[in-house]
Amino acid sequence: MSKKTPFADLDALRVQSDADAQEFHVQNVPKPTPGKRSKRERFVMVPIEAAGQVAQAMHEPRTFIWLLILYLAWKTGSKTVALSNAELRKRGIALSTKRRALAAYEREGFLKVERYRGRSVVVTLLR
């Protein structure tokens, strides 16, 4: 007893003309539906230690300062964080570099900086 498969007669399945082929493709291609993730912003998970090592190796301390602010905001669940000098000192980042980087980010509208004499600066992410 032999089973008849739908592919036994391949000639019957062939498209006869270009018009038939075009009609087939247009009618049978499903339209893409946006998934849940299409509305979400893409992100990258980076260990803060690795970010510090790369920033140090590439001589880009300002990049590490930005990543540290993003990390602190994520960790605290708040867009407003205190940025202490201790973490930056571990990476060999000078306070003058921190001051210049924060001024540049503030000037570009990325964040708002509140400075207090003798205390850590308070940074609020704007974008």
Give your account of this protein's structure.
The model has no long low-confidence stretch (mean pLDDT 81). The protein has six helices and three strands; from the N terminus they run ααααβααββ. It has a domain of 78 residues: Arc Repressor Mutant, subunit A (Orthogonal Bundle), CATH 1.10.10. Helix content is 46%, strand content 10%. The chain is elongated and about 85 Å long. The longest helix is centred in the middle third of the chain and has 16 residues. It has a three-stranded antiparallel sheet with strand order 1-3-2, covered by helices on one side.
Briefly, what is this?
By secondary structure, this protein is mainly α. It has helices at residues 10-13, 18-28, 48-57, 61-76, 86-90, 95-107; strands spanning 80-83, 111-114, 121-125. It has a domain at 48-125: Orthogonal Bundle (Arc Repressor Mutant, subunit A).
List the helices and strands and how they pair.
Blueprint: H1 10-13, H2 18-28, H3 48-57, H4 61-76, E1 80-83, H5 86-90, H6 95-107, E2 111-114, E3 121-125
Antiparallel strand pairs: 1-3, 2-3
Helix pairs in contact: 3-4, 4-6
Estimate what percentage of residues fall within beta strands.
5-15%
The CATH class of the domain at 48-125, by name, is: Mainly Alpha
Structural class: mainly alpha
Task: Write down the Rg.
Answer: 28 Å
> Could you state the order of secondary-structure elements as H and E?
HHHHEHHEE
Return the CATH architecture of the domain at 48-125. Answer: Orthogonal Bundle
Mean pLDDT, nearest integer? 81
Low-confidence runs of at least 5 consecutive residues: none
Distance between the termini: 70 Å
Main sheet, how many strands, which sense, barrel?
Answer: 3 strands, antiparallel
Strand arrangement within the widest β-sheet reads 1-3-2
Instruction: Please give the number of β-strands.
Output: 3
CATH topology of the domain at 48-125: Arc Repressor Mutant, subunit A
Number of DSSP helices? 6
Shape: elongated
Determine the fraction of residues in helical runs and give it as a percent range: 40-55%
